[in-house]
Design a protein that fits this description.
Layout: H1 9-17, H2 21-33, H3 38-57, H4 67-74, H5 89-104, H6 121-133, H7 138-155, H8 164-174, H9 180-199, H10 228-236, H11 243-258, H12 262-266, E1 273-274, E2 279-283, E3 289-293, H13 296-308, H14 333-346, H15 356-368, H16 373-380, H17 385-391, H18 396-402
Antiparallel strand pairs: 1-2, 2-3
Helix pairs in contact: 1-2, 2-3, 3-5, 6-7, 7-9, 10-11, 10-14, 11-13, 11-15, 16-17
Amino acid sequence: MLEIYFVAPKTLARLRAGPSGPYLDGFAASLERDGYRGATAVRYLRAAAHLGHFLQGQGGALSDVDLSAFFAHLQTCRCPRSKGGRRNHHTSYGAKRYRDYLVQIGVCQCGASPSKIADPALVVGFGQWLQKHRGAARSTIRQYSRGANDLITALGNDPTRWDAKSVRAYFLERVTRCGAGTTEKLVTGLRVFLRYLIAHGQCQADLDKAVPAYASWRLAKMPKDLTAEQVERLIAACDGSSPESCRDRAIILLLARLGLRAGDVAHLRFADIEWETGAVRVSGKGRYQVRLPLPQEVGEAVLDYIECRPPVRGSDHVFVRNIAPFRPFVRGDGVSNLVRRAMKRAGIVAPAKGAHVLRHTVATEMLRHDVPLDRIALVLRHRGIDTTAYYAKVDVNLLKQIAQPWPEILP
């Protein structure tokens, strides 16, 4: 496989004769399979050969790859075989990619990660309960478990000894070290954890009420949405025939027309799209699943992307990253970053950036067209009408038409 990237017989012989030689053909095949560009693959292969010579010079072997020592060596590298492969992005990332390949084929062991302190049994049980009975996402479980761990560290491992005074004191001290957003999440997480303990008889009844409420009026702020003209500019900023443009356009149309969350788009699979019925199945928070109509414009954009989508082995996710290795989005963060870049290209200055502003826009636009809140809640997959009211607070343009001037400014 090295012949794909190198032509000179001397270069091929030198690479195959080096310490990394027995594995370079397989590594080259993996790079070609994952869709790396030729120039990038050449640099990665040179980095792999460089790493092998470095380990040999240090008396090590490929079974014990120490990337930290190799990176330190690159700072002052004068190796005759480095071919310019000193401290740069391609050399360091190529070495990492090669180490991952060696781990994959069993040549070396995965690098030892810092030992993680095991969570207490209470927190483990709490996380399992969140996943099984609440359908909580992994990120939510991690966040709530982190707060539960901190509470146990501060108050002790026996919740039966906790009282309202100590819980309240812990909370008031903790919020002095965090912002408003973190405080709101901390209130929710601690209350859920304490209610879990109460339900299992492991702490005093009503102890969750010792966590003070955080003064935050959900409907006090104006909606964070885009105008119809801004949405069209955002979509137009993704025009083009490249795989990246087709992907961005399809994703933004899903967000702007259906009000999906970034995580919904990141986890969308081919089996979720019902082409014959023109619908798409979406699973949101708490495993709450709903079928939404797939507009013609959105369906055509998704099809355009599928036709030029990079091939990905072992994954049925619709949307994947646009750079090698082509892999699905892990979380919704990648989708939100995509929207931010598109907004920057379109020159849109918005009250909020990211994918969620389009969800607010969908709700506000439906309210502007006299769609009842219960119908909006159905589209946005809200279980309570109060949550929908948070997204579609008020039709500002309509209020401007009926607002009366204050008496003080009358002539």
